[in-house]
Design a protein that fits this description.
502 residues; Rossmann fold; nine-stranded mixed beta sheet
């Protein structure tokens, strides 16, 4: 649906944002002077008619004076501003669905990356599982299916979140290189550079890591999890990979480590030497990311390997004795159907991985896929309905394999309006995945495109700093990123430094 323009009775940034989120949800495009527009102008008026409880009336006036109206009431445990914004979204959601016959959105008006944070807030408030499921349906128009998946998952996370305190942290190391760039990837094109540029990166990474190690010592942090991601860390040549693993291990590995993860990614980046190196450094979790087991799709998305190579890589890692192997798949890839996903799931579950993460394809700005679609090049994406069929097929195999969801997150423009969801067998939960998604723990980011998330337990808030995604900027401005990270730590932990004798 297209409209030429719309007006709001408020220019407040959050009000504009929530209205646009509903437009995006129902694919309502605003395009000035579009000759094929369905409406010339919409007028949206939101009025707070009472304060205790918060009541909001939303009035939507369409062309020729047609008026829609809905009123909603907030909850006693809601902040007034949060209730106001939620009710604007909920009112618009139901008015548009009823007027235009839009199908229900699986997640309703839950738009944020981490919907489980709402559930955890209610758990802390003493709400029980059934009451939370019901409230997600009524307050956020969330489907019973999604609510019933997410709420038990949040309760499953509790003992893992409770294992961390103010001084327990994780470390993320970003290796921003890949052997090829996948069609759907929006990451800057840091294809593996020449040896001279790699040496420069390794020297800067060593500086970044040494600074982070000093912060760990200064504040007396206990490192619980180490996660080496990317990019594809194993795209590094064997000697550089071994050097990087030595740096990480010597800087952060210790008696408190619960989990040490390396994203191995793709078989064309793996070698026997890298497997031996990871074993030598006590890696406990390795990610294998086939995305699909359909050979024609692998070629289409820019992968230089076969499904058979994935199987060989998996067996090599399993034979090496790594405690946990997880595999990532993408639902909604170009040209695929639910039948393709069924074939992929048969092949993947036959390997008996410990953890499978299902990603719904997200159309990201800057990806070659998005550019092709914008330029009307022929790329056949599955419909939302087909992607949901894919999800249903995949989850059937997940449950048959004895796995249950343990973390999830959402992104904008996700195929099927779905989610990214990690599922595993009992005892194979990824601690780092839970901690980073629930933002319950400080995480120090080191390397290209890494993010530092510092939880201020006194102020009850979290702040982040971001290392540059492009290699040139990261190498040039490393001192700036080190200082930004240090500044966030001083703000949250100042006065709590460990005292060392001179």
């Amino acid at each position: 649906m297209k409209i030429n323009s719309f007006s709001l009775n408020s220019d407040h940034q959050v009000v504009v944002k929530v209205v646009k989120e509903i437009f995006r949800l129902f694919r309502i495009e605003v395009e000035e002077d579009a000759s094929d527009a369905d409406y010339a102008h919409w007028d949206i008026c939101n009025r707070r008619v009472s304060e205790d409880p918060v009541r909001v009336v939303t009035i939507l006036t369409l062309d020729e004076g047609e008026t829609l109206e809905r009123e909603g009431e907030g909850r006693p445990d809601e902040r007034a501003s949060a209730a106001f914004h939620r009710l604007i979204k909920l009112n618009l959601y139901w008015m548009l669905r009823e007027r235009f016959g839009f199908p229900p959105a699986p997640w309703g008006i839950l738009h944020g990356v981490r919907p489980t944070k709402i559930v955890h807030r209610w758990i802390r408030g003493g709400m029980e599982e059934k009451a939370i499921i019901s409230r997600l349906q009524s307050d956020y128009a969330c489907s019973r299916e999604k609510a019933s998946m997410m709420v038990p998952m949040a309760f499953r996370q509790l003992p893992f979140l409770e294992s961390s305190d103010e001084k327990t942290i994780s470390v993320y190391v970003g290796i921003p290189f890949c052997l090829t760039r996948c069609l759907y990837c929006s990451f800057p094109s840091n294809l593996l550079p020449n040896e001279k540029k790699l040496r420069e990166f390794m020297d800067v990474l060593a500086k970044d890591m040494a600074a982070a190690k000093r912060e760990v010592e200064r504040y007396g942090f206990q490192v619980q999890n180490i996660y080496i991601g990317g990019g594809t860390p194993t795209s590094l040549p064997d000697n550089f990979f071994a050097e990087m693993m030595d740096m990480v291990y010597n800087s952060f590995y210790g008696a408190n480590i619960v989990e040490f993860t390396v994203e191995a990614g793709r078989p064309d980046s793996m070698s026997a030497e890298k497997i031996a190196c990871m074993k030598e450094h006590h890696v406990t979790r390795v990610s294998v990311n086939p995305q699909t087991m359909q050979e024609r799709t692998l070629r289409l998305i820019g992968r230089q390997h076969t499904p058979e190579a994935i199987v060989e890589m998996f067996h090599a890692l399993r034979d090496a004795g790594f405690p946990h192997i997880n595999m990532d798949l993408i639902l909604g890839l170009p040209g695929e159907t639910a039948e393709d996903v069924e074939d992929t799931m048969q092949k993947v579950t036959a390997l008996e991985p410990d953890d499978i993460t299902l990603h719904a394809l997200a159309l990201k700005r800057g990806s070659n896929l998005k550019l092709k679609l914008d330029e009307n090049e022929h790329v056949e994406l599955p419909s939302d309905e087909e992607t949901r069929r894919m999800s249903a097929v995949a989850m059937r195999y997940i449950h048959a394999a004895g796995m249950r969801p343990y973390y999830l997150y959402r992104q904008g423009y996700m195929s099927g309006q779905l989610e990214n969801i990690g599922c595993c067998r009992e005892g194979a939960e990824g601690m780092y995945n839970i901690q980073i998604m629930e933002e319950h723990q400080t995480i120090l980011g080191i390397g290209g495109a890494a993010t530092t998330k510092v939880v201020d337990f006194r102020a009850k808030r979290m702040k982040s700093s971001f290392n540059a995604k492009d290699l040139v900027t990261y190498l040039r401005d490393i001192d700036i990123y080190i200082e930004k990270r240090a500044g966030l730590l001083r703000e949250a932990y100042g006065g709590q430094e460990e005292r060392f004798s001179c």
